[in-house]
Amino acid sequence: MTQKHTTPDGLVIVDKPSGFTSHDVVAKMRGIARTRRVGHAGTLDPMATGVLVLGVEKATKLLGHLALTEKEYLGTVRLGQNTLTDDAEGDITSSTDASRVTREAVDAGVAKLTGDIMQVPSKVSAIKINGVRSYKRARDGEEFDIPARPVTVSSFSVYDVREAVAEDGTPVLDLVVSVVCSSGTYIRALARDLGAGLGVGGHLTALRRTRVGPYKLDSARTLDELQKELTVMPIAEAAAAAFPRWDVDERRAGLLTNGVRLDMPEEYAGSGAVAVFAPGGRFIALVEEHRGKAKSLAVFG
After folding, report:
1. Looking at the keywords, is tRNA processing present (predicted)?
2. In the chain, is it the N or the C terminus that has fewer CB atoms within a 10 Å radius of its CB?
């Protein structure tokens, strides 16, 4: 009698390679983990590398709640050229000599894009406009506008400014930057807007995501490494790292998993999703406080 393969419930932290879409990585993981139940928390553009959080089996129910967290990136912004996609994947649409842009001007431009800002996503983003992906509308040659959205850029730092010459001979500046921002922030839109503010245009030439919420690059594995050894962060450990923790006794655990709205301790008011643990460290549910009661978001126990 053959033993049935079982994939553990949990998160897989992938170091995404360049050239892969997030969906490509999910498809690859379905083969590695031998299950259809794989999803991702927040896409990464094909050009970008770094942390992509995947959920396997029951942990797919965590993903929508994980996507609300802070993210951290390292990237390179080229000042002096605009592209169709606001990154190096798209055709160059304009070139302007950027050699006279000073470090002071760069720092002032970065300061304007730090904090709570309104951002217009790139037209080739995956945002839906009236139910149709923006990139599809752009590919079909449609004229349309994407409304600006509020995002938070809690840190935007320039580590290095390098003079360079683009392939078309334009003097450009390459900025090595790091960004800490809210989910939904487009780094290529920051590059575009920084270049626009400086009057020379700009686009993103490299991007590496180094953190998604509490999940960092040091815990990420490449697809090749995962093919050799599937490393799954157990669902209880993943939940404990990402959400406030509420420990309950066995009786309340049973009531919660059966949909009973129990009174919630005041300390969790306004804290969003809370991970509920039964005795023995068993992760049983994600809840949120609603009028003093525990409103169930997803049940695992």
Report:
1. yes
2. N
- CATH match of 10-69+213-236 with 3.30.2350.10: yes
202-212 and 49-56 beta bridge pairing: parallel
Instruction: Tell me the C-alpha distance between 132 and 109, whole Å.
Output: 33
Token pair of 284, please? 């049983």
| CATH number at 71-212 | 3.30.2350.10
pLDDT in tens, 125-170: 667 666 766 666 666 666 767 889 999 999 999 999 999 999 999 9
Q: Which of 9, 15, 24, 45 is catalytic?
A: 45
Asked about 263 being catalytic, the answer comes back as no
**Model pLDDT, residue 146:** 83
